[in-house]
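[Automated response] Your request has been received and processed.

Submitted sequence:
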Amino acid sequence: QIHCPAGDSRHKESLKNKFNIDLDSSSKTVNLIGQNMQPEDSAVYYCARERLEQRF
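Generated structure:
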């Protein structure tokens, strides 16, 4: 799991050398970039957006 609150990314320790995250706030896009990948890293990777809802 990689969590990106308010433009800051926090990686699970085992993923630190596998992925880099590029956050572009102007275009509201996130790029997940794999690096040092091995055949055993082959998978379908998903990106999800957390929905924050405030009720008063």
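Summary generated for your ticket: The longest strand covers residues 19-24. The mean pLDDT is 75.
If you did not submit this request, please reply to this message.
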